[in-house]
Amino acid sequence: MFKKILVFIICFCLSVSIFAQQKKNDATLKLWYAAPAANWNEALPIGNGRLGAMVFGNPAKEQVQLNEETVWSGGPNQNITAESGAAIPELRKLIFEGKFEEAQAIADVKMFPKKNSGMVYQTVGDLFLDFNGHEKATNYYRDLNIEKAVATVTYDLNGVHYKREIFSSFIDQVMIIRLTASKPGQISFTTSMVSPQKSEQKINKGKLILNGITSDHEGEKGQIKFESQVKVVNQGGTLTAKQNTYEVKNANSAIVYVSIATNFKKYNDLSGNATEKAAKFLDKAVLKNYDLALKEHIQFYRNYFNRVKLQLGVSAAVNKPTDQRILEFAKSNDPHLAALYFQYGRYLLISSSQPGTQPATLQGIWNDKLLPPWDSKYTININTEMNYWPAEVTNLTELHDPLFKMVKDLSITGQETAKVMYGAKGWVTHHNTDLFRITGPVDRVFPGLWPMGGNWLSQHLWDHYQFTGDKNFLKQYYPVLKGACEFYLDVLQEEPSHKWLVVVPSVSPENTYVEGKRVSISAGTTMDNQLLFDLFTKTSKAASILNLDVNFRKKLSATIARLAPMQIGKHGQLQEWLTDLDRVDDKHRHVSHLYGVYPSNQISPNRTPELFDAAKTSLLYRGDPATGWSMGWKVNLWARFLDGNHAYKLIADQLRLVGSKLDTVNTKGGGTYPNLLDAHPPFQIDGNFGCTAGIAEMLLQSHDGAVYILPALPDVWADGEITGLIARGGFEIAIAWKNGKIAQLKIKSKLGGNCRLRLNDSQIDKSKIPFKLAKNKNSNTFYEMPQIKTPLISKEAKLNKVLIPKSTDYDLQTVAGKSYTFNF
User: Fold this and answer.
1) Which of 644, 780, 777 is CA-nearest to residue 700?
2) What percent of the residues of the chain are helix, what percent strand, and what percent coil, each to the nearest 5?
3) Annotated Gene Ontology MF terms (predicted)?
4) What DSSP state is assigned to residue 135?
5) Contact between 670 and 625 (Cβ < 8 Å)
6) pLDDT higher than threshold 60 for residue 34
7) Which of 405, 661, 682, 753 is deepest in the core (most CB within 10 A)?
8) Does residue 236 come out as left (phi exceeding 0), alpha (psi in the -120 to 50 range) or beta?
9) C-alpha torsion angle, residues 540, 545, 549, 554 (rounded to 10)
10) Is 729 exposed, middle or buried (0-12, 13-18, 19+ CB in 10 A)?
């Protein structure tokens, strides 16, 4: 009897322990692993918007790879010359005559004189903490808790439990590493720094200092001076300076502080003092109690992160390491990983883009190279824009600010390019820019000869107003919108066939239309026309709201009427070019002509069903396989096509493990590294941000004249809850659903006014609807839709009616600041 009771107690305690561990994992959003990072793509990112680091977690030799957002090669410059624009009249003539290959050859030579292609975002170097004898650690564990923005490493060795906590403090503007052990006198290590930059190290006034200057690049001399200062504070034991290292012996605990700063003040001003700035942050941080520093850091971070919560359910997979979960995702039931991936995108945006910082680059703020892929700069023919797709809808509106500030800078630097290259007023940028806000074309014709980058960036200004209703913001940035319009009003040309006004020369970003040849130069591409329609329409609306520029508005309206319309081609597809040049075997990663579906709102199942069908046909032809960011875009597109299952398939395709010893598949494009970062490959952060925006778009849309609840819910997410998403019109939305049907809907109105709700008939019991049927066509100025011109439809087009969910619109009159709850 005693043995049975003992066995029962042991089994009960074991089950309680397993249950407690499962609950522990269930209750937190974290990436965790049973082994140290073997390479950079397994290390874990931390950041405070300005300072970034990748934490490797090796017990014997901790590596913390360091970044500071303004460490770039070169210095202030502009890459435009008068030569670049000299060939434009000739190119226009050849393109309108249909001599595309000849135009391409001339542009390759004459439009890209020997000037730089932009500067490079660079690493500072690495901090190493050497723990002699810790190679045989057991019970190893490391994680990144994205509910706290803290990385942790724990392990056991010789009866001692060791712990490291690492974070990049939002409050104190330094990185902090705390080392503890379960027994006193057990913390012994040596600190050192290395850098691939031109640098020197010294110990001065109790600090390990590394200072240097960034690289020369493409004719521009490196001018960014940086300094990293490291201070070790030990409790117990000894701290000894040895050459360029600090050695701690037999301490009870220790804290390592890392401060980094540069001489950068503005894109055209490098008069700052890196030493003084780094010292100011560090000297203040070391005076603060560690527990208080950690508490303040977490509180600051949670002010953003906790605004949105997503619950999709939990399976036993939560008890497996994250890399294992990614490997098994496509074949397992692991909805928690999808929720973690969604929130990880929000974590990355909070950590890489704060008010007052630089915008997130192609790699956020995380880069370990002097010459990273694509220079890790700002690629503005989609990638930079994609970085900020989650900002408004996932309740991180303040984090949009760095992008707005960059657009304002470009509206200044781009004036020279507009004048010198095009002989035009206003401002322009092409497909790339950098810390110094270059605006000229780079990288040859097929990506670079695209004068629409500033246009696309400008769309974010109006979008922010739609979500916030902030008229002061609109007034502040209206000159940026107007300046962009002024450029295109000057450079638009009348094409000979239909007398439409088009941008020429241009390209459809990075795609070509002559099979087997890299010919891309063209006139009036569909994306250009869509961008122009949006820019002119939104600027006109902004002027009307602000009661400005009546005559300018009339000019914009007259120009809109002459823009080339969207067209449906011989394959039933939305044409990518002005003439019908699309190929059904074109699998290019860019789907630029579908900008009108997402992120724009020009194509709608309700307002433009023919275009909606044609756009979907185009996406089907283009196919699913793609690079990471392209799959992120396609998640959003399939959500807009109201096909949640197809959107989910793309998420599953993206959550394929690459770059790990667990990986047995050679993935050519797309996928996810063990640290959940997007694998283009190589790493680009836009895929993470694109998928986060895409998941939000599956659950809430507000672009098409209504707040659409659960528009693209996949079958696998039959039960769930999301709180805190933001809809245009300033509505904060919370949704709970069960068995695919809406169970509860909460709406908080920030601005007041009518909230038009769109509900799928299959997801509700219509007899329980507490709302009034919608009557007035345009009920809310924040998401009122412009009227799109009737498209030109080719006679060869064969349209298939797209099946979409049957939905009904309802009106709810709201008062600013009030919340409304409805149970179904």
Assistant:
1) 644
2) 35, 25, 40
3) alpha-L-fucosidase activity
4) G
5) yes
6) yes
7) 753
8) left
9) 40
10) buried
Do 196 and 188 touch, CB atoms closer than 8 A? Answer: no
First to last CA, the chain: 53
How far is Cα 599 from Cα 610, in angstroms, rounded to an integer?
19
Residue-wise burial string across 441-472, b where 16 or more C-beta atoms lie within 10 A, e elsewhere:
bbbbbbbbbbbbbbbbbbbbbbbbbbbbbeee
pLDDT tens, position by position, 170-184: 999 999 999 999 999
User: In this predicted model, what pLDDT tens digit does every residue of 399-414 receive, in sequence order?
Assistant: 999 999 999 999 999 9
The residue with tokens 């409790």 is: 235
Q: Is there a contact between 259 and 174 (Cβ–Cβ < 8 Å)?
A: yes
Q: How far apart are CA 438 and CA 616, in angstroms?
A: 36
* Rounded distance between C-alpha atoms, residue 759 and residue 418, angstroms: 46
The SS3 assignment for 649 reads helix
pLDDT 10s digits, 625-679 = 889 999 999 999 999 999 999 999 999 999 999 987 776 554 557 899 999 999 9
**Highest CATH level, class, for 32-73+119-306:** mainly beta
Region of 68 on the Ramachandran plot (φ > 0 left; ψ -120 to 50 alpha; else beta):
beta
Question: How many beta carbons lie within 10 A of that of residue 539, not counting itself?
Answer: 25
Which residue has 């107007």 as its token pair?
482
Could you tell me if 213 and 198 are in contact, meaning their C-beta atoms sit under 8 angstroms apart? yes
Per-residue confidence band for 17, with pLDDT thresholds at 50, 70 and 90: very low
Among residues 647, 672, 42, the alpha carbon closest in space to that of 326 is found at 672
What is the average pLDDT score of the chain? 93
Exposure string of 768-780, with b = 16+ CB inside 10 Å and e = fewer, is: eeebeebeeeebb
**Distances in Å between the alpha carbon of 638 and those of 598, 765, 804?**
9, 26, 12
User: What is the amino acid identity at position 196?
Assistant: P
Instruction: Name 226's bridge partners.
Output: 212, 262
Under the banding of pLDDT at 50, 70 and 90, the label for residue 788 is low
Q: What H or E segment, with its residue span, contains residue 53? A: strand 51-55
Q: Can you tell me the distance from the alpha carbon of 585 to that of 256, in angstroms, rounded to the nearest whole number? A: 56
- Using the predicted structure, report yes or no on whether residue 11 has a pLDDT greater than 80: no
With contact defined as beta carbons under 8 Å apart, do 536 and 458 qualify? no
pLDDT given for residue 798 in this prediction: 58
Q: Please name the amino acid found at residue 327.
A: L
Per DSSP, 607 falls in state T
**In whole angstroms, what is the distance from residue 344 CA to residue 339 CA?**
8
Helices assigned H by DSSP within 355-452: 383-387, 389-393, 401-422, 445-448
Residue 55 CA to residue 36 CA, distance in Å, equals: 9
On the CB side of 150, CA atoms within 13 Å amount to 20
What phi and psi values does residue 456 have, to the nearest 5 degrees? -65, -45
Strands 150-157 and 198-204: unpaired
CB 641: neighbour CB atoms within 10 A?
Answer: 26
Q: Which of 348, 408, 364, 298 lies closest to 693, judged by CA?
A: 348
Q: Which of 427, 421, 480 is nearest to 452 (CA)?
A: 427
Residues 6+ apart with CB under 8 A from 454: 380, 407, 410, 411, 414, 427, 428, 429, 439, 484, 487
Q: Per the structure block, which two tokens stand in for 577?
A: 């070019």
* 3 state DSSP class of 157: strand
Tokens found for residue 607: 């307002």
The two beta strands, 225-235 and 207-213, are antiparallel
Q: Tokens 């799959």 map to which residue?
A: 631
CA nearest to 821, candidates 759, 754, 745: 745
Q: How far apart are the C-alpha atoms of 589 and 508, rounded to whole Å?
A: 12
HSE, CB side, 13 Å, CA atoms: give it for residue 250: 2
**Domain coordinates of the chain in residue numbers?**
32-73+119-306
CA distance 25 to 55: 21
Residue 278 confidence (pLDDT):
98
